[in-house]
Fold:
Amino acid sequence: MRDPLPRRRLFGEKLMAVAARDAGSTVRWWKNGDHPGDRIGEVLPDPIGGGTYVRQEGAVVRYFRHPQFDGGQVHDGCGRTWHDHGWIDSGGDGLTVCPGDHIWTGADGRVFGVYKPGQRGQS
Ligand SMILES: [Zn+2]
Structure:
């Protein structure tokens, strides 16, 4: 069985073939909660205060918050403020998601990559 980790480095047609084999899916992300794995509204045990809390932030696509990026500033690449963006914890710096990006996700929930509309090679 192949190590699944290199998937994120695949490009173009090869990436598509891997995605098809794994019955992956693509979702277009616009805002918090758009990814089917985000589980917004899920009731979870509160590890700090006890009791429970309701999930507000996506489990897959999290809020984009970074000390070097003012959330009110506009991202030159898409024209939207950083607070409108999402972030996927995929190791390292993770993956930044602009509103309107496509997110390719495998059947096991692993994110293959994030793509602009009309692109297939970015990961
Ligand atoms: Zn952007």
Summary: The chain has one domain: 5-115. Residues 75, 77-78, 80, 85, 98 surround zinc ion (CB under 6 Å).
